[in-house]
Amino acid sequence: MIAKLAKTCTLRISPDKLNFILCDKLANGGVSMWCELEQENFFNEFQMEGVSAENNEIYLELTSENLSRALKTAQNARALKIKLTNKHFPCLTVSVELLSMSSSSRIVTHDIPIKVIPRKLWKDLQEPVVPDPDVSIYLPVLKTMKSVVEKMKNISNHLVIEANLDGELNLKIETELVCVTTH
């Protein structure tokens, strides 16, 4: 998803979380995003060491499509290892152990060029303050919604989402020729 939103992103690595950060300038039509993943949901073993005990974080800038492509090879992996390396330039090395038909394994390695972000720029990449919401909507199964929205986007570029306290959710598109609403 991130690869579709922006060419590059920032990966923040801390002892308990991974954050993907996009912070383009909104005034220029850019996209901002803060995605937080608990590392324990993805890794059996996780070791990281930041700059110091007080700044136990690592900030990297990388091309999101390169990371996406490397992780796609890991879908049926027996093991996945991600580590920072320096192979003539800083890299995020993704090693994927795949089983073959003969029950032997092979290792596929991807070296993703990265830029290590200096500590003086970390203040620009902090988690945004988001006010408490006035309204929360629990959505139906996303697979179903995706199917409906993809069909609607063929008709219009704009989608209106309506919800109420009675548990009703409407997805609506309007053009000069047609008005379509899904309840």
UniProtKB/TrEMBL annotation:
One of its GO terms (biological process) is telomere maintenance. One of its GO terms (cellular component) is checkpoint clamp complex. InterPro entries: DNA_clamp_sf, HUS1, HUS1/Mec3. It comes from the Eukaryota. Gene3D superfamilies: 3.70.10.10. Belongs to the HUS1 family. This is HUS1 isoform 6. It comes from Pongo abelii (Sumatran orangutan).
